[in-house]
Amino acid sequence: MADIEDAGEPAVPDAGAATEPVVPYAGAATEPTVPYAGEATEPAAGEATEPVVPCADPLGEPFLRARFSLPSLPAGFLRRQRLAGHLDQALGTPLTLLNGPAGAGKTLLAADWAAGLRRPVAWLTTEAADRRPGVFWSYVLQALRASGVPLSPAVGTPADPGAVDRRLLAALAAELSEQTRPAVLVLDEYDRLPDPETAGQLEFVLHHAGPGLRLVLVGRTEPLLPLHRYRAAGELTEIRASELAFTPDEAALLLASHGLDLPDRAVRALVDRTRGWAAGLRLFALAARESDDPERYLKEFEAGSSTIADFLLAEVLKGQTEETQDLLLRVSVLERFRPELADALTLRSDAGPLLAGLCRANAFVERLGHTWYRLHPLFAEILRAHLRERLPGLEPELHRRAAAWFHRSGMLGETLGHGAAAGDWDLAASALVADLAIGRFFTGLHADDLAALFSRMGPEPATPAADLVRAARDLAGRETDQGLARLRRAGEPPGGGSDDAAARMSRALLEALAARLTGCPARGEEAAAEADATRPELPGRLLDAHPELTALQLTHLGSARLWAGRVEDAHAALTAAAGSPAATSTALPRKEALAHLALLDYLNGWPGRAERKALAAVSEAERAGLPQRAGSGLDRLVLAAVAVERHELDRARSLLDEAARHGCDPRDPVPTAGRALVAARLALADGAVRDAAETVRPPLSTVEPSPWAVGHEALVTAARHLAEGRPGEAAEGLRAVPADQPACVAEAAAIQLASGHAGAAADLLDGIRADGRTGPAVHVRTTLVRAGAAAEAGDEAAARALVRRALLDARRERLRRPFLDAGAWLGPLLAEAPLRELAEGWLAPGPPGRDRRGLPEPSPPPLAAVELSGRERDVLERLARMMSTEEIAADLFVSLNTVKTHLKSVYRKLAVNRRGDAVRRAHDLGLL
C-alpha cells in the first residue's frame, strides 16, 4: 500500500465519491485505484457495500502493470503517416487487424498511433498464460479500467483461471454498449492466444458491445474470428505485411535518422533485399553506421552472419518443430516452391499443411498463388547459411532433386538453374536439348544469361547433348573455330525416341548456322533436309513452344544462299523466316531475315524497297526490346548503302558507325562483305579511291565465293585503276564481274565507257536481262551509260532523251550518286532548261559530275527531297524544340494518337526511326 499512498491516490473510494477508478491515459503510469486482492475494505458508516474489484488475477498473482503500458519507441523511430492515417480508420470499424511477420513494426505502429490519439486507449500485451479464459478476461477488464473506461464493479472479475462466467461477458458488453465514446482496446501479440473458446467469447463481447468497442488485434496470424462477415459488412480495417513494408522513400528517411546518407540506388537495393522489412532495415542501419563505408557494407553484407540472422533464427526458426525446421532449411535453395517440390526435397509428404501453417503464421513464407510459395529473401539467405552448417554437403543434392522435379514438370529455366547449381551439367544440357531450346543461345533476349550459365561447364560430361550445348555456346560467343570443332564431335545419341529427335533437330540448327558462317549453302541444304525429316518425330507441343527454331534455320539457310548468289532460293527462305509467328523468341530471326531481304533489294537496284525493309527490321528489334548488339547490324548497313546512293554522306557515315555498335559480326560473311561494300562506296564518294580498294576486300574464309561480293570488289578495284590513270587495267579487272549480277554489270559498263570503251560498255548492257528482278537504280545507271555513249557519238538528242528518262526514274528514289559518277559530259545537258526543271528540288541545279579520271566535283547542299504536309511540319518543328509527344498534342490541340500518326509519317518520309535522326535529317534537307 505504500506506493499507492505515496502516489497520493486513495486505497478505497471516499464516501459518496464515484466508484470508478481514476487512471491516467495509456502509456502513462497505470497505478490501480482499486484495492489489492485480499485487502480488507471496511465500508464507511451508512454506506452500501459494493463488490470489491481485485487487483490480482484468478491465480492470485498481482497484475503486471507493464502489460498495460504502451511500448516505448526506440531512438530513430520513423512515424509513417500513410500507416497512421490508415490506422485511424480503426475508430470507425468494430475490428482492426494489424497482421504481419516478426519485426514488421506492427507493435510500434500501434503504440505510436495510440499515443497520438486524444482519447484513452486500453492496451494489453497478451502472454501464453492468457490462454486460460479466466486469466485473459481478468487482464482485459483491468486494461479497460486502467485506461479510464467507466466499468462498474458490478461487472466483476473471473474467479476461475480456466473459465469465465457468461454473465460477466454479457454485463461487460452491455456496459460498453452504453458508452458515449467507444472504448479502444488494443491486444498486442494476440497470436499467442490460439484458443477458439477465448476467440468465441471475444467475438460475443465485440458483437454485443456494438459501437461502444473498437478492438485492435496485433499479431502474426489471423485470429479465429469470422473475419469474412466483418469484411462483407465493411466493418474491418486491415493492415497487412505488404502495407507494413517500407517504401524506398521511407527507408531513406529511416536510414537518415540513423545518420546514414546512401544514394538512391543503394537504398532501393536494400529495400529489394529486405522487401521493406522493418527489423531488417533497422538492424542494417545500426550495423552500417559503425562502418566507414556504409554503401560498401551494404554490398558486402552477409545476412547469414549478422544480427538479422540471430533475430530470424530466434524469432522464426527455433520456435518451429523439427519437421518444419528441416523443411525450411531444404526449401531455402529454391526461388519458389510447391508442396510437391518441397516433398521431393524432404523425402516426406507433409509439406502441404506445414507450408500453409507457416504462411498463416506470417513466418516469412509468402504465398504466390496457384499453390506456389517463396521465402523472404533475407530469411532464405540465412537459412542457406544455416543449412551448410547443420547439413554440410547436402546443398548440391537438393539442387539435383529440384532440377529433376522441374524437368519432369516441364519448367526449363528452373531445371537449368538448379542443374548448374548441382554441378550436374549432363542433366542441364540434356534438358536444354530435349526441350528444343538450344535456339535460345541465338535469340538475343536471354542469350547472355544462358551463355553465362553454361560457361561454368567444364570438359565433363562428354555426352552428345553436352557437346551440342558447348558448340552452341561457342558459336554464340564468336568462338567459331572451336564451335565448329565441337559440332563435328557431337555425334547423334544412340537409340531412338523423341530425345534423339530433339538432339538431331538441335544439331540441324547448329549445322545451318555453320553453313551461314562458312558460306556453304550445300551444308545448309543438308541441315534443312535433316530438320524436315526429323520434325514429324517431335511432339507438336515442343515445336509450337519453340517457333524460333524454324525461324533461325530458315534465316541461316537464306543467308548462306544469299552469299552464294542464289537469289530466288535465298528470297524464298528469308521470306518464310520473316513471316514466322510474331513471338518474342522469333523477333531476332525475323529482324535478320528482313535485313537480308533488304540487302537483296539493294543489290538488285531497289533502294526504296531496301530502305523500307531495313527500317522494318530496325523497328522489329526495338519493339521486341532486343539488346543493342543482337543481330548482325545488316539493317543499318543497308540504310547506309542507300544513303550513299542518295549522296547523303554524313548520314551514311553515321549509319555505318551505328551498324558497328549493333553487330557486324566479323565471322558472318554477308554483313562483313556488306560493310566492306558500303565503306568502299563511301570512300569512293569522298574521292579516297585507294582507301576504297583496300576496304572492299575483307578477310573472309568461306567455302564458296560470293558473286556479288566478287563483283563489287572488281568494280572498286577498276575504279581505282581508272582514277589513277590506268584505264587498260581498269577494263581488264572488269572481267571478274559476274554476268548474273545486273547492278554490277551496269556499273562495269559505266567504267568501260569512262575508259573509252563505248562498244564494250554497250555489250555489257546488252547482256543484262530485262526482267522484273532489276530495279530503278540499275535502270538509271544503264540509261546514263547509254546517254553518255550517245553524247560521245554526237547524238545530243538521244542523250538528252535518255538523261530525261534517267532523271524521271531517279527522282522517285532520290538517286544522286549515278549522276555524280556519270562524268563531265552530263553538265551541259543538265544546264538546259527542260532537264534543269526535272532536277530541281532533289538534285543540284548545276552538274556536279565527275571528270574522266573519276574525281568528284564539289556538290551543293542537298535540296528538299521530302514533301511534308502542313500538320507534319508543325509536329516536326515542335520535335526540334525538344517537346514531348504529350506537349506537342497539347500545343496543337490534337489527340496523342494523332501526333503519333503524324510522327510515324514523318519518320517514314525522312527514312529514320528516331526523333534525333528526324531532326538532323530535316536540317540536312532544309526542312527546318
Automatic annotation (TrEMBL):
SUPFAM superfamilies: C-terminal effector domain of the bipartite response regulators, P-loop containing nucleoside triphosphate hydrolases. One of its GO terms (biological process) is regulation of DNA-templated transcription. It comes from the Bacteria. Residues 842-865 are annotated as: Disordered. Residues 861-926 form the HTH luxR-type domain. InterPro entries: AAA+_ATPase (IPR003593), AAA_22 (IPR049945), P-loop_NTPase (IPR027417), Sig_transdc_resp-reg_C-effctor (IPR016032), TPR-like_helical_dom_sf (IPR011990), Tscrpt_reg_LuxR_C (IPR000792), WH-like_DNA-bd_sf (IPR036388), WHD_MalT (IPR059106). Keywords: DNA-binding, Kinase, Transcription, Transcription regulation, Transferase. Gene3D superfamilies: P-loop containing nucleotide triphosphate hydrolases, Tetratricopeptide repeat domain, Winged helix-like DNA-binding domain superfamily/Winged helix DNA-binding domain. The keyword Manganese does not apply. It holds the Pfam family WHD_MalT. It is an enzyme of class 2 (transferase). GO terms for molecular function: ATP hydrolysis activity; DNA binding; protein serine/threonine kinase activity. Its EC number is 2.7.11.1. This is Serine/threonine-protein kinase PknK. It comes from Streptomyces fradiae ATCC 10745 = DSM 40063. The gene is pknK.
